[in-house]
């Protein structure tokens, strides 16, 4: 659905890259390799997004690195739209609904790094999780968001480089 609003596939991939997790940053050649596109197409979109103030650029050794501008007035809106586009809002809602005593939900793997590979890796931390609900939930979520979902369960909290979608102690 977002593809009809943002017609440039490169721009959409850049927004996913930088707004699914605002800690993500990259440079032109890395993005060209990751997306399998020409540097010219990516440079054009990076320049447009930077001129609009949506992305920031800074020198990183001999390269220019780009990342989301968290101070942009539309940052939260863009982040929420991208997460909704990826189905992360529905995923989190379904997890918290009846899964049990969930302490933490983390997004790990490709998507946490801004790579939309069609697979979502989720770590759910908690005690007495409802495993029967989870079995049925996986297929239902995959149908809803049109992506493969892989759940990993832990009873001990994780300090991870992944993206925290929910943390009971912090109130996220």
From TrEMBL:
InterPro entries: WH_DNA-bd_sf (IPR036390). It comes from the Bacteria. This is Transcriptional regulator. It comes from Algoriphagus hitonicola.
């Amino acid at each position: 659905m977002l593809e009809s609003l943002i017609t440039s596939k490169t721009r959409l991939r850049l927004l996913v890259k930088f707004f699914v997790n605002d800690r993500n940053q990259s440079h032109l050649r890395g993005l060209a390799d990751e997306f399998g596109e020409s540097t010219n197409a990516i440079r054009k979109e990076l320049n447009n997004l930077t001129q609009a103030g949506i992305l920031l650029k800074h020198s990183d050794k001999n390269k220019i690195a780009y990342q989301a501008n968290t101070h942009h007035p539309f940052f939260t809106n863009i982040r929420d739209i991208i997460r909704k586009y990826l189905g992360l809002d529905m995923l989190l809602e379904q997890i918290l609904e009846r899964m049990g005593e969930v302490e933490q939900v983390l997004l790990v793997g490709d998507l946490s790094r801004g790579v939309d590979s069609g697979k979502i890796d989720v770590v759910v931390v908690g005690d007495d999780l409802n495993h029967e609900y989870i079995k049925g939930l996986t297929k239902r979520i995959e149908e809803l968001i049109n992506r493969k979902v892989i759940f990993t369960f832990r009873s001990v909290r994780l300090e991870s480089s992944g993206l925290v979608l929910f943390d009971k102690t912090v109130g996220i």
